[in-house]
Model the fold of this input.
Amino acid sequence: MGLGWDGELIRLVPLDFERHFENCYRWINDEEVNRWLCAGDFPMTRLGEREWFEKAQQPSDSTVHFAIETLDGKHVGQSGIHQINFRHGTALTGSFIGDPDERGKGYGTDAAKVRAWYAFHILGLRMLYSEYFAGNDLSRRMQEKTGYREYGVRPKAIWKQGEYRDLVLTYFSREDWKASQ
Done:
């Protein structure tokens, strides 16, 4: 294993400015990418993205940021574990595949599986939560294949590109993860 944590198709690696910044800057300003993200409604300047990126590279007790790379080193997306609460053993997770040519190839699912392993095995968490916009079939399928279960919908929770959108709420427990191993 090289730097990071390997799956079958991808490797989750720490963010690296020289290897990942330009893609992140381009993706956050790409309407097709951010139409499914809660971020990206305001144009992100190079300086703003640099500030976010520099902060994301710093150690944190509540957030882990990963770049998603193919096993041959191509940067295809981002993944994260956010709002980590060690007292309760919970966190909020999310990923996206920024490169449109790489969507639908299983990279997101593999990244979510590796991220879950990291959250449960390394961090010792007991429950991961996530959410996706209703209608985002790629995210829905990725979460189902990983083992996330739907537990509710927040109706018209987020204003995004001209309409209020429903958020589908999901969870993945340590017990379900262990059973899938």
